[in-house]
């Protein structure tokens, strides 16, 4: 069923306003809307699209959304889907940045900063445990995850991340069975698709290389390069982007400011990657719109390029899925390291914050409440502690 880009934009704008719960929830919401309710594609087709997006770096749920937009209205539809799904949370994160810039993190509003950091404790812990259970399924992957966590905790730099992911890719290629990875005749691409895929890979690679090597110390270059680099390397999206952004932007950002933005992001609908709007704005307080816009474009751009490549490769790419098992384990390790420092070390520093952190963990892991409910409860509890002068 064909659509025009404007109708795609309106539909995804509504989804961007109402889709809470992170990338897994977003994928479920898309399925309910387009497979069950509207029946615009089959379960098999949707599952193939989801698998394809999970194979490549970038924000998985946003890439699924762009893939749906492409299916409905071509590349203009993909752009419309991304813009609609991203705009609500990007705008809200910009408002959060303006609050911080205007003094929201001062003594008067410091309780809310504490609340957002406590929110991050519960949410990131839940993410680590869930990913450990799902992705670290044998002794090898568990050991790899722990080694990655120790390495990144000891040297939390962008180079460490690149090295760990690169070694995991190499190890998967060398030691994981590649049965079924050869191309069959039906997998062969047309020449124009092959050229488009190669061009996309070259652009993505040059952009990533530039983000690593061309930092000239200017504000705008740093904002673009840091976000592009993070978007180019993150597998699975969602919380996994946290260690990448932390390594890129802390410093110059203070850990409190960074974690507050991450806490804000938990209460927002749409993709968590819109934390880039917050980071870009607080880094450029005199040009918040430009900073926010540059951060958003930079963090989503590499994922969009790789989605184009993936759509060209199609089913042929899915045959290599099993070789990413070590990369997934490294991702778990990176997130575990960031959970320890700065999430726990910055958020839990007294008896009162320890109690709040326990409440956050109980809500997330024990009661399995939504991120929005967690934000509301933690904000209320932290404000009460503030009134009682316990924090």
Can you tag this structure with a few keywords?
globular; about 75% helix; 17 helices; about 400 residues; mainly alpha
What does this protein look like?
- By secondary structure, the chain is mainly α.
- It has one domain (109-387).
- It is 77% helix and 0% strand.
- It has helices spanning 5-18, 23-37, 43-54, 60-104, 110-135, 139-154, 158-175, 191-213, 219-233, 241-249, 255-266, 275-283, 288-313, 315-318, 325-347, 351-366, 371-387.
- The chain starts with a helix and ends with a helix.
- 50% of the residues are buried.
- Residues 179-187 have low confidence and may be disordered.
Query: What is the count of β-strands?
Result: 0
Question: Main β-sheet: number of strands, strand sense, barrel status?
Answer: none
Uncertain stretches: 179-187
- Rg, rounded, reads 21 Å
Number of helices: 17
Count of structural domains:
1
Structural class: mainly alpha
Order of helices and strands: HHHHHHHHHHHHHHHHH
Percentage of β-strand residues: under 5%
Instruction: Note the gap between the termini.
Output: 56 Å
Average pLDDT, to the nearest integer? 82
Estimated helix fraction: over 70%
Spell out the blueprint of helices and strands:
Blueprint: H1 5-18, H2 23-37, H3 43-54, H4 60-104, H5 110-135, H6 139-154, H7 158-175, H8 191-213, H9 219-233, H10 241-249, H11 255-266, H12 275-283, H13 288-313, H14 315-318, H15 325-347, H16 351-366, H17 371-387
Helix pairs in contact: 1-4, 2-4, 3-4, 4-11, 4-12, 4-13, 5-11, 5-15, 5-16, 5-17, 6-15, 7-15, 8-9, 8-13, 9-10, 9-13, 12-13, 16-17
């Amino acid at each position: 069923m064909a659509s025009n880009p404007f109708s795609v934009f309106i539909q995804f704008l509504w989804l961007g306003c109402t889709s809470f719960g992170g990338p897994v929830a977003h994928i479920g919401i898309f399925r309910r809307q387009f497979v069950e309710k509207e029946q615009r594609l089959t379960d098999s087709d949707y599952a193939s699209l989801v698998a394809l997006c999970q194979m490549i770096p970038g924000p998985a749920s946003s890439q699924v959304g762009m893939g749906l937009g492409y299916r409905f209205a071509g590349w203009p539809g993909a752009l419309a889907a991304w813009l609609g799904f991203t705009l609500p949370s990007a705008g809200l994160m910009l408002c959060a940045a303006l609050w911080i810039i205007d003094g929201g993190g001062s003594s008067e509003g410091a309780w809310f900063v504490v609340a957002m950091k406590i929110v991050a404790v519960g949410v990131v812990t839940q993410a680590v445990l869930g990913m450990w259970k799902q992705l670290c399924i044998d002794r090898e992957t568990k050991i790899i995850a722990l080694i990655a966590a120790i390495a990144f905790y000891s040297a939390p730099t962008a180079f460490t991340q690149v090295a760990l992911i690169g070694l995991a890719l190499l190890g998967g290629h060398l030691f994981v069975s590649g049965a079924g990875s050869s191309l069959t005749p039906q997998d062969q691409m047309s020449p124009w698709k092959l050229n488009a895929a190669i061009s996309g890979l070259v652009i993505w690679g040059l952009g990533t290389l530039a983000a690593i090597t061309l930092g000239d110390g200017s504000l705008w270059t740093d904002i673009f390069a840091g976000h592009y680099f993070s978007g180019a390397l993150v597998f699975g999206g969602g919380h996994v982007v946290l260690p990448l952004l932390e390594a890129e932007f802390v410093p110059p950002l203070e850990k409190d400011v960074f974690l507050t933005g991450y806490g804000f992001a938990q209460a927002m609908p749409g993709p968590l990657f819109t934390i880039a709007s917050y980071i870009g704005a607080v880094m450029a307080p005199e040009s918040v719109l430009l900073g926010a816009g540059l951060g958003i474009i930079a963090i989503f751009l590499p994922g969009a390029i790789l989605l184009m490549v993936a759509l060209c490769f199609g089913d042929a790419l899915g045959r290599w899925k099993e070789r990413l098992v070590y990369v997934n384990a490294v991702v778990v390790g990176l997130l575990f390291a960031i959970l320890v420092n700065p999430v726990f070390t910055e958020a839990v520093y007294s008896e009162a914050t320890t109690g709040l952190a326990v409440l956050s963990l109980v809500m997330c892991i024990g009661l399995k409440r939504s991120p929005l409910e967690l934000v509301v409860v933690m904000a209320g509890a932290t404000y009460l502690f503030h009134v009682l002068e316990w924090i």
